[in-house]
Amino acid sequence: MATAWNLDYFRNPESDDEIQQLCALGLGHAGSILHFKHLRQYTYSRNWLDNPHKSPVRQCWIDRFDEIGYLDQAGVGEPAALMS
User: Fold this and answer.
1) Three-state DSSP class for 60?
2) Most exposed among 55, 66, 68, 82, judged by the fewest C-beta atoms under 10 Å?
3) Domain segments of the chain: what residues?
4) Is 65 helix (H, G, I), strand (E, B) or coil?
């Protein structure tokens, strides 16, 4: 089974252009996951987004990603389970 790794460093986007560039990059990464045919189907797993250890640094990024719509793109952020 193939293993894929990706590591990116982001500066907090400030302008609309920077936000659009970051979102385009995220969407591209999400699409690339599909080519590896593994179980993970999202760039950011629900566990990472739930921030179980309450990391303030991670939460800051999660909040910012939410603010700019980054996680709402197809395949980027794993959605929360729907309550029945």
Assistant:
1) helix
2) 82
3) 16-72
4) helix
Alpha-carbon distance 33 to 76, whole Å? 10
**Nearest-10 Cα torsion for 5, 19, 14, 65:** -60
Buried b / exposed e along 43-80 (16+ C-beta atoms within 10 A):
bbeeeebeeeeeeeeeeeebebbeebebbebebbbbee
Q: What is the pTM of this model?
A: 0.78
| Amino acid type, 17 | D
What is the number of residues in the chain? 84
Q: What are phi and psi of 14, to 5 degrees?
A: -110, -45
Residue 22 structure tokens: 């970051």
Residue 78 sits at φ, ψ, to 5 deg, of -65, 125
